[in-house]
Amino acid sequence: LQETVQLGDGWNRTTFAKSVPMSTYLVCFAVHQFESVLRMSASGKPLRVYAQPLQIHTAEYAANVTKIIFDFFEEYFNLNYSLPKLDKIAIPDFGTGAMENWGLITYRETNLLYDPKESATSNKQRVAAVIAHELVHQWFGNIVTMDWWDDLWLNEGFASYFEFLGVNAAEPDWKMLEQVLIDDVLPVMKDDSLLSSHPIVVDVSSPAEITSVFDGISYSKGASILRMLQDWITPELFQKGCQAYLKKYHFENAKTQQFWEALEAASNKPVREVMDTWTRQMGYPVLEMGNNSVFTQKRFLLDPSANASHPPSDLGYKWNIPVKWKLGNSANYTLYNTSDSAGITIAPSPNTFVNINPDHIGFYRVNYDSQNWNELSTLLVSNHTDFSPADRAGILDDAFSLARPGLVNYTVPLDLTKYLKNETDYLPWHRVISSVTYLANMLEDDTNLYPQFQEYFRYLVKPIVDQLHWNDSGDHLQRLLRASVLDFACSMDDKESLNNASQLFEQWLQGETGKNIQILFLYFSIPANLRLLVYRYGMENSGNEASWNYMFQKYQETSLAQEKEKLLYGLASVKNVTLLDRYLKYIYNTSLIKSQDVFTVLRYISYNTYGKTMAWDWIRLNWQYLVDRFTINDRNLGRIVTITQTFNTELQLWQMENFFEKYPNAGAGELPRSQSIEQVKSNIEWLKANKEEIRIWLEA
C-alpha cells in the first residue's frame, strides 16, 4: 500500500506499490474489518494473520508456526521471500482448503484457526501442514511458476512434499517425515493402481480438465516421487538442486524437464531418465521375488482382470526404479533399469531378512515369495521393533494391497496382523485400519461373517485400547493413535468402547440441563481429542430427536470452525431416517449450512449405514440444483460421486451407470466418475473371489 488520498464525497483513492512479475492467478485483495496478529521474520518481514475479531485468539498458533516455517524456507531455499510483507486471512466460507496468493494467503477457517482448549491434535497438525504447504508456494509456484497447467505438479507436488519438512522444523516431535507415508504415499498408491488414474504430467486445455488435475496424483504422487528422489540422490544434493532451479528461473516459468536438469547437474545421476518413467506414465510397479532372489517388475493394478498395457504408454509401463534395500543396519541402492529385462538380484545373507524398500521410500510395492512372507510374520510376532514404524506400515499396506488382485492370498496379510496385539505405534495402526476398513465395507452386509470379522479385530485392538484409555493424555503421536484405535474399536462393535462413548455423550447432553447451584461451575466438557468419537458414536448409539436438536444448537452456537465440523459429523451419525432427511433439507439453506460444508455433510451422511443410499439418492434427485448452485466445473461437486466407491452390488452399479448416462456432461467429475465405476465393478468381483477365503481363515 503506497498511499490513500481522500477525494471528498466519501471517496478515497488508494495507490498500491508496483508488484513483482506475477502470474494473474496469484493476485488477491481482501476488503474486511478483521483483526490481526503480528510476528516478524528473522529477515525483518512482517507476517500477519487476520481473522474475525471474535476468533482472533485462535490465530496465535498460526502466527507462531508461520514465523518458524517462513524462516526455515528462506534458509533452506537460500532465497529471500520476494515481497515486503506476508499476510494470511481466514475466510468464513471458503470453497477450497487454502490459496497461496502472493503476499495474501487465503484459508478456510479450519485450516488456520486453532484453539488449544477446544481443538483436537489432528486439527493442530492440519493447520501446521496447510500453513507450511502455502508457504512453500511462495517459492515453488510464485517465484518460479509452472509454464502451463500440465506441469501443475511442479507447484503442488513440491508444496505437498516440502510441507512435511516445514512442519518438521516447527514441530520436530511429530515425526512428519514418517507421516508423509500415511498422509500421501500409501493413500495415493490406491488411486494410482486403477486404470482410471492419469500420469503426473498430463495434457490439459479446458477449465474442466485443468481443475480436475488438482487431485491426489498431482499433490500426493508428486510428493511421493520427490521423497523417493530426495533419498536416492541424498537430501544435501536435492536441496542444492532446488536452490539452483529457483535461482535460474527466478520470476520466470519452468517445465518439469528444467527441474530434472537442475537436479542432474547437482547430483550427477541420471535424474531425468529415471524420473520420466514416473511422471510421464500412470501407475507404478510391484517388484516380485522369484527364484534365487531375483526381483522382476510389473505394473501393479487392483483389478486382476485389468489390461496391464492399457491405456497405451510410450514407456510401456516399465520404470527405472531406484531400489533401496537393507541387510541388518546397512542400506544400499540398486538402480533397476528398464533395460534389465531379466530383473535384478539382491543376494540374501544367511539368517538375515533382506528388507526391500525400507520405510516404503520408493513408490512401488514388494511381493516376497511365500517363504519370506512367512518369515516376516514370524519376525513381527517375535520382535516387531526390528522394523521401523514406517516399515511396518508399508509392509502391512503392501500385503493387503497385493491381496486385492490376488497376487497373494488373503492369508498373507491376515497372518501379518497377528502381531498387532503388541503394536503401539501410530503409523502401522493408522494404515492397517485403512486396509481393514475396505474389508469391513465389503463384508458388513454378511450377517454371519461380519460378526466373526469384528470379533477378531476387537481382540487385536483391545490391548492398545486398554493401555491408552478414554482420556486425553500423552504426546502428539499418542493422542493421534488414541483417536484412531478408539474409533476402530467402536467401529468393530467393542461394547466397552461404545459404552464409554455413550456415557460421555450423556454427560455432555446434561451439561446445560442440570444447572442447579452446585454444578453451575462444573459445566461438562469432553476432552478435545475424544469429541469427534463421542459425537459420532454417542449419536449413533443413543441419538434421538432431542439430542440431535441439542447438537444442532451447539453447532450454531460455536464460533470455532473445527468444532463445527466435528458436530456436523455427529449430526450425520444418527440412525434415524427422519432426522437424516431433515439434515439433507438444511443443505438448501446457507444460513444453516455454509456452501463450503455442503459436500462435507453429504460425505458424512454417506458414512452412516442408514445414510449410505440416502445421500446418493439425494445427490441424484438434486443433481441439477447442485450444478446450478456450484457449476459443473466445481471439483468438489465433481468428486462427490466418489461416495459410491463402497458399493458392491450389480443393482448399485446399474444405478450409477444409469445416472451418469442421464447427465453425460461430467465437467470436473469425469475422472471421479470413471474411478467410481471401476472401483464398484472391482468390488463386485472382489466379493466373489475372496469372501470364502476370508471366512475360512477367520474360522480357523
UniProtKB/TrEMBL annotation:
Cofactor: Zn(2+)
GO molecular function, one term: metalloaminopeptidase activity
SUPFAM superfamilies hit by this protein: Metalloproteases ('zincins'), catalytic domain (SSF55486)
Record-annotated site: Transition state stabilizer: Y219
Annotated localization: Cell membrane
Keyword Cell membrane: yes
Cofactor note: Binds 1 zinc ion per subunit.
E.C. number: 3.4.11.7
One biological process term in Gene Ontology: regulation of blood pressure
Gene3D superfamilies referenced in this protein's UniProt entry, alphabetically: 1.25.50.20, 2.60.40.1910, Neutral Protease Domain 2 (1.10.390.10), tricorn interacting facor f3 domain (2.60.40.1730)
InterPro entries cross-referenced by the UniProt entry: Aminopeptidase_N-like_N_sf, ERAP1-like_C_dom, M1_APN-typ, Peptidase_M1, Peptidase_M1_aminopeptidases, Peptidase_M1_dom, Peptidase_M4/M1_CTD_sf
Residues holding Zn(2+): H133, H137, E156
Lipid bilayer topology: Single-pass type II membrane protein
Reaction catalysis annotation: Release of N-terminal glutamate (and to a lesser extent aspartate) from a peptide
Keywords annotated in UniProt: Aminopeptidase, Calcium, Cell membrane, Disulfide bond, Glycoprotein, Hydrolase, Membrane, Metal-binding, Metalloprotease, Protease, Signal-anchor, Transmembrane, Transmembrane helix, Zinc
One Gene Ontology cellular component: extracellular space
Domain ERAP1-like C-terminal span(s) in chain numbering: 353-681
Active site residues per record: E134 (proton acceptor)
Subunit structure: Homodimer; disulfide-linked.
Sequence similarity: Belongs to the peptidase M1 family.
The protein's name: glutamyl aminopeptidase
